[in-house]
Specification:
The protein is largely without helices or strands and 63 residues long. The chain is built from 1 helix and no strands.
């Protein structure tokens, strides 16, 4: 077996900021159930739920 040596490149065990700050906070709005679309259409869309389907339409911007 090898000798266990501390690895200097690993993150420190102590928090960097004092006091430790939260990293993130999730915001999840209420999403009412309105049904589902057929399976084949859901796979094409990427969502089985019609109220969550929001396709991305690229805008043609001239700089």
């Amino acid at each position: 077996m090898k000798d266990c040596k501390p690895m200097p490149h690993l993150m420190p065990l102590e928090p960097v900021c004092v006091p430790p700050l939260p990293l993130a906070h999730a915001y999840i709005p209420n999403q009412p159930y309105v049904g589902i679309v057929p399976v084949e259409e859901g796979f094409k869309r990427g969502s089985m739920f019609p109220n969550l389907y929001q396709p991305y339409h690229k805008k043609n911007k001239i700089c």
